[in-house]
Structures are given as C-alpha cells and as structure tokens.
Amino acid sequence: MKKRASLYTLSIIILAELIGLSVIMYLRYHIDRQTQLFKVIIEQIFEIEDDAQQLRGLLYKYEYHMASELYSYGTASMEAQKNLTRTELEIRNQIIKHGQLMQRLPKGSEQASLFRTLNDDVLNYLNYNAVLLSMKGIENRDEIKQFTDAFILPLMQRVNSSIDALLVITKSHIANSQQELSVHLIRSRIICIGALLLMVISIILSIAYSHKTLSELESNNKFLEFKSELNRIRISEIQNNTIMGIAELVESRSGETGQHIKRTSNLVHRILMCAKKHNKWHDILTDEYIDFVTRAAPMHDLGKIVISDTILNKPGKLTNDEFDIMKTHAAEGGKIVYEILGGVENMRYVEIAADIANYHHEKWNGKGYPCGKKGTEIPLCARIMAVADVFDALVSKRCYKLPMSYDEAFALIQSEAGEHFDPEVVELFLEIKDEIKEEF
Predict the structure, then answer these.
(1) Is the Cα dihedral 338, 344, 348, 349 positive or negative?
(2) Which of 158, 321, 420, 432, by CA, is between 20 and 30 Å from 44?
(3) Number of domains in the chain
(4) Is 105's pLDDT higher than 70?
(5) Is residue 250 part of a domain?
(6) Of 132-141, 261-270, 363-372, which range is least confident?
(7) Looking at the predicted structure, is the pLDDT value of residue 116 above 60?
(8) pLDDT for residue 257
(9) End-of-domain residue from the set 210, 238, 266
(10) What is the pLDDT confidence band of residue 2, given thresholds at 50, 70 and 90?
C-alpha cells in the first residue's frame, strides 16, 4: 500500500516536472519568437521614418532651388539648373526606394496606401513644377503665384500630411509593441506561477528561469524606449541640418560663407545667457526659450531667398525702389518659416523663429520695418537678434562696404541704445564685449 502510494506520489512529481519543463520550453520558444518579431518591427519602423524624413529634406532642398530659379532676373546660372536637376533625380531615386520598401509592407495596409499616395503626390509635384518653370519671368509673377497657390502648395501640404501620418503610424506601432511586451510580461508571470504550483522538486529551476525571462522582457522594453528616443533625436538633427543648410545657401548668395549665421547665433546665445545670469526677463528666459531662440537665429534672413541677386549683391547704395524690395525679405522670411516648419516642429519654436525673421529689422523708436513696431511691442528674441545682426554686419566686409573696427562698432551700438536698439539689450551686449573680442 505504501509502495503504491509512493509510486503514485512519484508519478505526480514526475508529471509535475514534465509539465513544468514543457511550460519552460514553451516560454523560451515564445520569448525567442517575440524577440525576433520585435526586432523586425523595430527595423522596419525606423527604416520607414528615416526614408520619409529624407524625402522631406529633399523636397525642401528642391523648393529652395525652384525659388532661386523663379525669382532670379534673366536666365539662371547653369549651376542653379544643375542643382535643380540633381535634386529632382535624388527625389525620383528616393521614390524608387519607396517602391522597394512598399514590397516588404503588408498588401493593403495603411502604410502601403500612404506610400503610394505620397509617391503619386511627389511625382505630380515635380510635374507641376516643370510647368511652373515654363512660366518663369518677371512679367508672369502673378500667374506663378496663382499657379503655386492652386497646385503646388496644396500638393506640398498633402505630402507633408502623408509624411506626418507615416510618422504617427510608426509611433503607434512602437506603442503597440510596448503594449504587447507588457501583456507578454503578465502572461509569462502567470505561466511561471502555474509551473511553480505544479512542480515541487523543480521549483528552484522554475524561479531561476522566470527571473531570466523577466530580465529579457524588461531588456526588450528598455531597448524599444532607447530606440524611440534615439530616433526622436535623429529626426530633430535632420530638421536642424536641413534648416542650417538652407540658411547657409541663402547667405552664400550674398557672398557669405555661412559664418554670419554662426557668429550671430553665438552672439544671441551669449546675450541670452548674460540676461539669465542677471535674472532679466525671468518669466520669459526659460531653458527651452533660450534653446529655441539660439536654434532659430540662423533663420533670420531666410526671406532673402525672394530677393534677386541684382539687388542682393549690388556694390553701391540701393535706390529707394530697390530698398523697398529689399525690406520685403523680413515679412517673407516669417512666411517661409511657417511654410517650412509649420506642422512639423514645436509650435512655440516656429513662432519664435517667425518672430526673429519678421521683426529683426524693427527699431526701438518705431522707425524700423516691416510693421513699425516700437519698444516692447517688438518680441524680445527679435530685439536681441537686431543687436547681434547689426554688430556682425558692421565688423564684416560686404560688397558695398569695408569692415568697421570692433571699438567703432561697439561705440555705434551704444550710441543707438534707445533709438535703434533696446537699451537693456545693449547694456548686456556691452557687458560681454571682452568675450566677443576674444572669440571673434
């Protein structure tokens, strides 16, 4: 009787061990399968995001070359035409890459449909721009604007919307993957508890393997979070590099090499940090605001893209009519910022960048342009940009003037406090003049 009971007990123990081992083996297989699936999803997600952002950057580059071609007087340079053709070829190659990527997506999926729509819109955009080029000429500017408003801008908005939708879907995939990981984690715990209840002799093995399983799941979850943050940083870098590239191209049209935008951005940052040290404008000067203003400073002259080379590079003094045209670059710059960054970047950053481009030629006494704002009506970021921009222009060589000495430039800035410039900004600027002399 005891022998029979022992055999019965032993059978139960062996059965419990077999079930426990089966559970462990299944758990291991399930983890390996989930890990492979998550790796494939992650790689595909970031390939789609990177592909979409590259296409957006190429379209911005193409739009710049188109604007340079359309708003130049006479025949554009061969180099400008080559740049336009080269960029169009890059865009078409990117569309081919889209097609290859689409083949790996599930047929009929929302992503595949968005890719197809995006490709069609981009091809139509290129075709419409070919029509737009045939309308080039100063006498056709109204027709160009009407055609652009009717066909080009809606297409660009659709393209941006498609790219944004792709990014939203990929982020949704990340969220779903994280949710699946959480569900899988809970399920694994339940399985481990069941294995522990069934196994008596193998309990230590079950606990050890459960701990290993949980560690692997948590590691996968951390990996997803890390890749998501890394991708966010990468997208931000792509946008910043694109913006800096456009700003440097605009500067190069007027004979600059990109140093002007770097120097003015440096000056703006130094003034902001000096203001923060003295606790000035403490309700405005958050770390985020300082970062946004510093990053937006290079875009202050984006509006010069619409000014012809004839006026932009004129060696002598501009006529009244020419100066009136030159003054339009401020308002145009504000519009371009919204067109480039609207719907893509943080709206607070977009507003600051637009304020800098639009109002950096306003004067404290209200005699500036384009709106004649005065005093604190002018946004703080634009008042700081005005000092940095004028100082760098004074000490730099231009096609229409020789550089001024630093001491003369500092004296001129000081004399214009309360007239051209915000007196408080000038005071901060003069406080760091020794630092400026050492670095410039």
Answers:
(1) negative
(2) 158
(3) 2
(4) no
(5) no
(6) 132-141
(7) yes
(8) 47
(9) 238
(10) very low
Asked if 387 and 429 count as a contact pair (C-beta separation under 8 A), the reply is: yes
| Of 285 and 179, the one with more pLDDT | 285
- Structural domain ending residue among the three candidates 192, 207, 238: 238
Same domain for 289 and 165?
no
Q: Are residues 232 and 376 in the same domain?
A: no
Asked if residue 245 is part of any domain, the answer here is: no
Q: What's the rounded Cα separation, in Å, for the pair 389 and 381?
A: 12
Q: What is the mean pLDDT of the chain?
A: 75
- State the Cα angle at 52 between 50 and 53, rounded to 5°: 65
High-pLDDT (> 90) share of the chain, %: 23
Distance CA 159, CA 125 (A): 9
Tokens of 78: 């061969």
Catalytic positions: 304
Give the tokens for residue 209.
């393997």
Measured in residues, the chain has a length of: 440
Where is average pLDDT lowest: 329-333, 364-368, 387-391? 329-333
> What is the rounded distance in angstroms from the CA atom of residue 128 to the CA atom of residue 437?
51
34 and 128 within one domain = yes
- Give me the numbers of helices (H) and strands (E) for the chain, helices first please: 15, 0
- Judged against a pLDDT cut of 60, whether residue 386 lies above it is answered with yes
Cα–Cα distances (Å) from 402 to 393, 398, 407, 440, in that order, read 10, 6, 15, 17
Query: Domain range spanning residue 424?
Result: 255-439
For 68-92, b/e burial (b = at least 16 CB within 10 A) is bbbbbeeebeeeeeebbeebbebbe
* pLDDT tens profile 159-217: 777 777 766 776 666 666 666 666 665 666 676 666 656 665 555 555 555 556 556 66
CATH of residue 309's domain is 1.10.3210.10
Please give the Cα distance from 15 to 102 (Å, whole number).
Answer: 50
CA distance readout (Å), 23 to 9, 18, 31: 21, 9, 12
Say whether both 76 and 201 belong to one domain: yes
Whole-number CA gyration radius for the chain: 31
Q: For residues 2 and 83, give the distance between their C-alpha atoms in angstroms, rounded to a whole number.
A: 93
